[in-house]
Amino acid sequence: MANARIKICGISTPDTLDAVLAARAEYVGFNFFPPSPRHVDMAAAAALAARAGSTIGKVGVFVDPDDSLLREAVAAGRLDAIQLHGEEAPERCAALRSRFGLPVWKVIPVSNAADVARADAYRAAADLILFDAKTPKDATLPGGLGLRFDWSLLAGLRMALPWGLAGGLSAANVRDAIEATGAPLVDTSSGVESAPGIKDSDKIAGFCAAVRA
Ligand SMILES: O=C(O)c1ccccc1N[C@@H]1O[C@H](COP(=O)(O)O)[C@@H](O)[C@H]1O
């Protein structure tokens, strides 16, 4: 089986971006959700995008964004894909894909089998489904909290769309996660940090090495 592709999310500094590039992750995520400790403003996104160049896919992370935020972020971050981590309906995903001409990655929060089945509603509206752990109702963020879900819910998954796994992944557990789910793409944020929003270059390298081990 081919190695899973890797997305390292929530990069906000040049040195940790360099660690992602050195580790040859396929995607880097820039977070445009203001309450997040990983949030980047447009100037920072532009500087990071210029440094990243075109050898890595640049994914913008959004939570129920309006079109003007998307327009600014797509240009500043030279985005290659739009990750929607809120309550965006299939119609909204399809509209944004056509408006911005970019692939849409729709996040499906999971705590049970019915949640996994919800992905099917996006088959004509998104380009990739990212399964992440459902956060508690009173959580401060809809993602990036290092929460896992029961990976056996994805065992034997047959999907019409490309898909990936997120939620609480780290160097210590990502191999088990890939073996349990067969995920063709893995995404991590807090699992490669020393504190919320503070990425750790050694952990980034360790995560990528563990995926390819
Ligand atoms: O990271 C954040 O702060 C964040 C904020 C709002 C929406 C999503 C966010 N993060 C994404 O959540 C998943 C899982 O993160 P973790 O590995 O469990 O920390 C990932 O896609 C992050 O990009």
Automatic annotation (TrEMBL):
Pinpoint the N-(5'phosphoribosyl) anthranilate isomerase (PRAI) domain residues: 6-208
Give EC number(s), comma-separated.
5.3.1.24
One MF annotation (Gene Ontology) recorded for this entry: phosphoribosylanthranilate isomerase activity
| Keyword set includes Hydrolase | no
InterPro entries named in the record: Aldolase_TIM, PRAI_dom, RibuloseP-bd_barrel, TrpF_fam
- Per its UniProt entry, what is the enzyme's top EC class, as one word? isomerase
Q: Which family does it belong to?
A: Belongs to the TrpF family.
Q: What is this protein called?
A: N-(5'-phosphoribosyl)anthranilate isomerase
